[in-house]
Write a structure and sequence with these properties.
The complex is a heterodimer of chains A (about 500) and B (about 500). Chain A has about 500 residues and is α/β, with parallel strands linked by helices. Chain A has 2 domains: about 300 residues, Amidase signature (AS) domain (Amidase signature (AS) enzymes, Alpha-Beta Complex); about 80 residues, no CATH class. Helix content of chain A is about 40%, strand content about 15%. Chain A is built from 16 helices and 11 strands. In chain A, helix 8 runs antiparallel to helix 16. The longest helix of chain A is centred in the C-terminal third of the chain and has 24 residues. With about 500 residues, chain B is an alpha+beta fold. Chain B is about 40% helix and about 20% strand. Chain B has 16 helices and 16 strands. In chain B, a hairpin with a 5-residue loop joins strand 6 and strand 7. The longest helix of chain B has 20 residues. The chains are: A alpha/beta (about 500), B alpha+beta (about 500). The structure holds zinc ion (ZN). The site of zinc ion has 8 residues of chain B, from loops.
Chain lengths: ~500, ~500
């Protein structure tokens, strides 16, 4: 059974479908492992032991009745900004600390219907705002590769859970890099599909025009599997796309012959330091060795990504988070009148980063500032998307770093702006709605660190080119096998 | 004296614009699958979407959008190819998301004109700025504050059954000049919405709510005066009274050297006055922005074309047809138009009989009376328009007289079928044969010597009595006009 704990989702599902192991056995083993390592990791805000057992029993019944389920018995960490009927769903905020969702997010339901077993609700930066998980109001999550370091964010809990083998698939949401950056920090594959591919129904909104659910896994094949289960039109989400999902189920390519990989002229690797620069140079070289043609592409407006993002995302969040007012659900701090109740509830319920973004967003939407901030940001967003479209005339995929540094130590980024810079490489793709993933590409021992930490290569494709993107990432992963070079300090050998 | 005539006497005219909210009649709410029904146990018609639960998302109701386009087309509004939903941000306990999904700068319909008529038949026009689509809020009940307002209340109860009901907001240009016109304008809107089936327009259930922007200016001036916005008008009657009262207040204020300030004023039905609710300085910044959960709406020319073709005859077109072409009076035309199924029935009678005057007499007269007495609607009764047309033909051809017609209608109402068949079967045809009528006349003259003597002595009003006797003697079948002529001749 411990083999299956370390196994991939593809392997677990195959074993359960072949009835070599039952979903319940896998689940029990997983729950025991979680119990053991969780004190050192802190991946989960809520553990779902009982419901996991009953889900597993149901999967076993379905398998016994002859069904073959794509995720039969696969343990899944669900980021705690996704609703799951009857479970506490907090967005890692004090304002929702006691809220039990009465319904299930579409993506989570599809995972469950496919045989996946939710093991727990995983930690995140409050309302998915952050890049280290340190903005969680409800718990601290450690990086399993070095517990003195952050797991990344905002999907840090799911990343840490999968890295420490506390789940086989982690569900994350990515608004400006919240899947890709923690994947890079935790030696995982983190995949953000095209905006609209996976329903947002039941995902607690941060920035509606950017939020996208995706998987964090230990292999590209597992990411593809989880993606295919979750993707597809949902009538409950007006922004979900009505377009067939190409499956990767067919054999993936063995090399990258003829694939044109764009290297972004404006992304100066030297800024990352010599060690990281040479690591990425080697990664690009490996792509070339696998048959890819490297071409230089220009993204002249990408440098405005951060500024654009930090207007659009806060503007949307300032409105999305209005509903947390103490009236209908969640925290209420009673005041003398309704206005005071609003003020006291929100003052006590939201953490500093959330408040900062609500203030920025409220200001950006205010009359007199709207044109200068929000409208201009939307125009910049259009230009950035146009730059990408132009770049993809010359290339099939774009390769670049997923994050500027490996995982940093707790409290290392004390001013907000230095934290915002962590998403420098991931934000432009989010603004353009493009599919992008992070795949392990090597290790760096950070200055002052004692152990090597993983780095991630980001691959980005044109809209809806998920299959090509996953195919290329699979080839690179299989040829380089960087992920297996080191084991996590917590959670056991890989 | 109404506010308007008072204003005119003081040398002022009123300038009025109307903003009204109309709940659309759809099976489900605007952005979720909950039933759109009035009333019910509080918080029973709710779901994660209309409760604004974390993670829930809106999906637009296409039928509501269709209702909007049809309403716009009925008033000759432009239907832009692109439209979008925006968020209007403000905190209120009965608004679940603390923003309302509405439309800011790209409404579904733009412009248009409402043509309406006053009681004397004068036709007026009021241009529309726009009609846009939004979602309704829930309903709060505030306890312990005395005036039912949230300020000072001990606690409040919120019912979200209404939250998310599709609501259209019609905004008019300030083309209205009196309270009477304002009410006539609203009635015209109501008639159109009812006719199109887009709303029930029941003010008492809150499915029509309206605000009025009122200002005054010296007669002949072109500049607009400072306006106040009047709220809390719960019936057409209170619209009339509130506007009149506000015009009078503004005129009194200005003629005594005062100045109108821009503010929102609430209508107080009990004291028949408006009172200040908030001034412009307290106005909200709603921070409108496009709702990222809802992609822009595309309305194809094809869709608009189809909806336009399928529109019924407009209310004002029907009014001018009735009063112009058909010669009905304003009251008759209004009565028919206010009852679309009656109007349709009437139109069918006219189409078959080509006699609008007689048709309207039957439809609004005997048939309406029978409908009232029996509680059966005319269109649901056994009397079909074809039979009404037959009856009119029998009358026009003098085959029967109006008394027989009345009797026949009663029998048709109780399932008698074709009046022509009844007349033929029972020999009810009117006697217009001079020989036969003369026989009855002579009989009556012979039997009523006193009356004849009175007539000849100058008491000519006994003629009616004598004619009546002839009708009676003929079993009602004698042609009354012929009897009258013959009788007058014999008595001369
Ligand atoms: Zn609902």
């Amino acid at each position: 059974m411990s083999d299956l704990l370390r196994g991939t989702a593809v392997q677990v599902a195959a074993a359960v479908n072949a009835r070599q192991a039952s979903a319940l056995e896998v689940t029990e083993a997983m729950l025991a492992h979680v119990e053991g390592v969780e004190p050192g990791v802190g991946a989960y805000l809520t553990r779902l032991d009982e419901s996991a057992r009953s889900h597993a029993a149901r999967v076993d019944r379905r398998v016994r009745s002859g069904e073959s389920l794509p995720l039969a018995g696969v343990p899944v960490a669900v980021k705690d900004n996704m609703c799951l009927d009857g479970t506490r769903t907090t967005a890692a905020s004090k304002i929702l600390a006691g809220w039990v969702s009465p319904y299930t997010a579409t993506a989570v339901q599809r995972i469950i219907d496919a045989g996946g077993i939710p093991i727990g609700k995983s930690n995140l930066d409050e309302f998915a705002m952050g890049s280290s998980c340190e903005n969680s109001a409800l718990g601290i999550t450690h990086n399993p590769y070095d517990p003195t370091r952050v797991p990344g964010g905002s999907s840090g809990g799911s990343a840490a859970a999968v890295a420490a083998h506390e789940a086989t698939i982690g569900l994350g949401s990515d608004t400006g890099g919240s899947i890709r950056e923690p994947a890079a920090f935790c030696n995982l594959v983190g995949f953000k599909p095209t905006y609209g591919r996976i329903s947002r129904y039941g995902l607690i909104a941060f920035a509606s025009s950017l939020d996208q659910i995706g998987p964090l896994t230990r292999t590209v094949a597992d990411a593809a599997l989880a993606y295919e289960v979750m993707a597809g039109y949902d009538p409950m989400d007006s922004t979900s796309v009505q377009r067939d999902v190409e499956t990767t189920g067919k054999p993936l390519p063995g090399d990258l012959t003829g694939v044109r990989v764009g290297i972004v002229r404006e992304f100066d690797l030297a800024k990352l330091g010599a060690e990281a620069a040479s690591l990425y140079q080697r990664a690009y070289g490996d792509l070339q060795k696998l048959g890819a043609d490297l071409v230089e592409v220009a993204l002249p407006t990408a440098e405005y990504g951060l500024a654009t993002y930090y207007l659009i995302a806060p503007a949307e969040c300032s409105s999305n988070l209005s509903r947390f007012d103490g009236i209908r659900y969640g925290l209420r701090v009673e005041g003398d009148d309704v206005t005071q109740t609003y003020e006291q509830t929100r003052a006590a319920g939201f953490g500093p980063e959330v408040k900062r973004r609500i203030l920025i967003g409220t200001h950006a939407l205010s009359s007199g500032y709207y044109d200068a901030y929000y409208v201009r940001a939307q125009k910049a967003r259009t230009l950035i998307a146009r730059d990408f479209a132009k770049a993809f005339e010359a290339c099939d995929l774009i390769a670049c770093p997923a994050a500027s540094t490996p995982a940093f130590e707790f409290h290392a980024k004390s001013d907000p702006y230095s934290m915002y810079l962590m998403d420098y490489y991931t934000i432009p793709m989010s603004l353009a709605g493009l599919p992008a993933l992070s795949v392990p590409c090597g290790w760096i021992t950070p200055a002052g660190g004692t152990v090597p930490m993983p780095m991630g290569l980001q691959l980005t494709g044109p809209l809806f080119a998920e299959r090509a993107l996953l195919g290329a990432a699979h080839v690179y992963e299989q040829a380089t096998r960087h992920a297996g070079a080191h084991a996590p300090q917590i959670g056991g050998a890989r | 004296m109404s506010g308007t005539t008072g204003a005119a006497a003081a040398g002022y005219e009123a300038v009025i614009g109307i903003e009204c909210h109309v709940e659309l009649k759809t099976q489900t709410k605007m952005f979720c699958g909950c039933l759109n029904e009035f009333g019910g146990e509080p918080n029973t018609k709710v779901c994660p979407v209309c409760l604004g639960l974390p993670g829930a998302l809106p999906v637009p109701n296409l039928r509501a959008i269709e209702h909007m386009i049809r309403s716009g087309l009925a008033f000759e509004a432009a239907i832009p190819a692109f439209s979008k939903f925006d968020r209007k941000n403000y905190f209120y306990p009965d608004m679940p998301k603390d923003y309302q999904i509405s439309q800011y700068d790209m409404p579904l319909t733009q412009g248009g004109v409402v043509r309406y008529w006053l009681e004397d038949g004068t036709i007026k026009e009021c241009r529309l700025v726009r009609i846009h689509l939004e979602e309704d809020t829930g309903k709060s009940t505030h306890a312990g504050s005395g005036d039912g307002r949230i300020a000072g209340s001990a606690y409040s109860l919120v019912d979200f059954n209404r939250a998310g009901v599709p609501l259209m907001e019609c905004v008019s240009e300030p083309d209205i000049r009196s309270a009477e016109e304002a009410v006539a304008f609203l009635e015209a809107l109501k008639r159109t919405f009812v006719q199109l089936g887009v709303s029930d327009v029941k003010m008492e259930e809150g499915s029509l709510r309206c605000d009025a922007n009122v200002s005054i200016r010296p007669i002949g001036a072109h500049e607009l005066g400072t306006k106040t916005e009047i709220k809390n008008m719960n019936s057409f009657r209170s619209v009339q009274r509130a506007i009149d009262s506000e015009i009078a207040r503004q005129v009194a204020l200005v003629t005594s050297g005062g100045r109108v300030i821009q503010e929102t004023r609430g209508w107080d039905e009990v004291h028949a006055t408006t009172h200040s609710m908030r001034s412009k300085e307290e106005a909200h910044d709603y921070r409108y922005f496009p709702d990222p959960d809802l992609p822009p709406l595309e309305v194809s020319e094809n869709t608009v074309g189809w909806l336009r073709v399928e529109l019924p005859e407009s209310v004002i077109r029907r009014f001018t047809r009735y009063t112009g072409e058909y010669g009905l009076n304003v009251q008759q035309a209004t009565q028919l138009i206010d009852n679309p199924s009656l109007a349709e029935y009437f139109d069918a009678c006219v189409a078959l009989s080509e006699n609008p005057a007689q048709s309207v007499n039957f439809v609004l007269g005997d048939l309406s009376r029978l409908a009232n007495e029996t509680g059966v609607a005319i269109y649901a009764s056994p009397v079909v328009p074809k039979h009404v047309a037959e009856l009119i033909a029998l009358l026009d051809g003098k085959t029967i007289n109006s008394k027989i017609a009345k009797d026949l209608l009663e029998r048709m109402w109780s399932g008698g079928g074709s009046p022509k068949a009844i007349v033929e079967r029972e020999g009810l045809a009117q006697t217009s044969d001079p020989g036969a009528v003369a026989k009855f006349v002579d009989q009556v003259l012979a039997a009523n010597g006193d009356a004849v003597a009175q007539y000849r002595a100058g008491k000519t009003n006994v003629l009616g009595f004598l004619v009546g006797q002839v009708m009676k003697a003929s079993g009602g079948k004698a042609d009354p006009a012929l009897v009258q002529t013959m009788m007058t001749q014999r008595l001369a």
